[in-house]
Design goal:
By secondary structure, the chain is mostly helical. It folds into two domains: 108 residues, 3-Layer(aba) Sandwich (Rossmann fold), CATH 3.40.50; 138 residues, Isoleucyl-tRNA Synthetase, Domain 1 (Orthogonal Bundle), CATH 1.10.730. The protein contains ten helices and four strands, in the order H-E-H-E-E-H-H-E-H-H-H-H-H-H. The strands form two sheets. The chain has a two-stranded parallel sheet with strand order 1-2. The protein has a two-stranded parallel ribbon with strand order 3-4. Helix 5 crosses helix 7 and helix 5 packs across helix 9. The N and C termini lie far apart (47 Å). Its EC number is 6.1.1.10. Keywords: Aminoacyl-tRNA synthetase, ATP-binding, Ligase, Nucleotide-binding, Protein biosynthesis, RNA-binding, tRNA-binding. GO terms for molecular function: ATP binding; methionine-tRNA ligase activity; tRNA binding. Pfam families: Anticodon_3 (PF19303), tRNA-synt_1g (PF09334).
């Protein structure tokens, strides 16, 4: 514990609801200063407003809201809960938990956006290229697209460094959305016979961005990231170095794993 609480190398970040701010910014730090024993002091405080439940207040006493056992009993995967609560995080104003909104975000954002991109990409590599990443021969349009992805990735890093948690996951999902559009515009399924090199480049670029997304989404949905890494047959070391496009272990000839469905529809 001394490596954490008595170290000049630790930057202490704390996350809490706004009602806990007085204690953690005044009373507790004052106690540590008063002890005069070299304790680590608060570096950055990140607070939230209140999360409401269907327009009202959560109340465990009155049985109003959804709690740990309730969430588990729904059968909804933990990753979906994590995604919904983090995208709905009340960072600057109160936000509202709504069951209908949870279903919409799962179906439209996780299933139709992220899940669709990952499954279409990996399945295409498996079915059309024998499970191996095809050769990448970048055209100008590909380079311009990748430049936009790099810019979004830099934006994501800046947001997480500034502890803008909701903005970070939105940026990651934007990368997924624009890559879906890139795949749709590229139509590799149509060009496979007439221009296999171009079709291969499109799908290889998408595969590399899927790998990037596994890294960017790891702080939010770690099990989803690990599943993506398994499907791609790459390391699940989600460091910044693994966020680089076209790394040495993921280029032409890399053999992927087995495609799996990441998300299912919530009715």
């Amino acid at each position: 514990w001394k490596q954490w609480w008595k170290s000049d190398n630790v930057e202490l970040y704390q996350f809490m609801g706004k009602d806990n701010v007085p204690f953690h910014t005044v009373i507790f730090p004052a106690s540590l200063i008063g002890a005069d024993d070299g304790y680590t002091l608060l570096h950055h405080l990140n607070t939230t407003e209140y999360l409401l439940y269907e327009g009202g207040k959560f109340s465990k006493t009155n049985g109003v809201g959804v709690f740990g056992d309730d969430a588990q009993n729904t059968g909804i995967p933990p990753s979906v809960w994590r995604y919904y609560l983090l995208t709905n995080r009340p960072e600057s104003s109160d936000s509202d938990f709504q069951w209908s909104d949870l279903a919409v975000k799962n179906n439209s954002e996780l299933l139709n956006n992220l899940g669709n991109l990952v499954h279409r990409t990996i399945t295409f590599v498996q079915n059309q290229f024998g499970g191996k990443i095809p050769r990448i021969t970048l055209r100008k349009s590909d380079e311009e697209f990748l430049a936009s992805i790099t810019k979004l990735t830099e934006q994501y890093i800046e947001e997480l460094e500034a502890v803008k948690i909701k903005a970070g996951i939105r940026t990651a999902m934007t990368i997924s959305k624009v890559t879906n559009q890139y795949l749709q515009d590229g139509e590799p399924w149509k060009r496979l016979k007439s221009d296999s090199e171009s079709a291969g480049t499109t799908i290889a670029v998408c595969a590399n961005i899927v790998r990037l997304l596994a890294t960017l989404l790891h702080p939010y949905m770690p099990s989803v990231s690990s599943t993506i890494a398994s499907q791609l047959n790459v390391s699940d070391d989600f460091s910044l170095t693994s966020a680089e496009l076209f790394s040495s272990e993921f280029v032409e000839g890399h053999e992927i794993g087995t495609p799996q469905v990441l998300f299912t529809k919530i009715a």
